[in-house]
Specification:
88 residues; mainly alpha; elongated
Length: 88
């Protein structure tokens, strides 16, 4: 897009979404976890975070898999750290 301000705004909104999902997904029931994962999958693909999107897609298919949820939580933290680093 070559518009740095727009890029930062989009990434800031994505990071906020990541935080909300990180805080909710572990304690959500399977239906809510599936919904959160679906929303995250679309947003992550939209910003090019394909590994994160793939993990969210797996959670959509296996919402009770605690190992996947744990992996997603770690990936969210790593993604938020990356966004913070490139936004400085």
């Amino acid at each position: 897009m070559s518009d740095r301000a727009l890029e930062q705004e989009v990434l800031a909104m994505f990071s906020q979404q990541l935080g909300a999902i990180r805080n909710s997904i572990a304690k959500a029931d399977d239906a809510e976890r599936r919904r959160l994962a679906h929303a995250l999958k679309g947003s992550a693909r939209g910003v090019g975070a394909f590994a994160l999107a793939d993990c969210a897609a797996r959670i959509e298919d296996h919402p009770s898999d605690r190992a996947l949820v744990s992996r997603l939580t770690r990936m969210i933290l790593e993604t938020q750290d990356f966004i913070a680093a490139i936004s400085r």
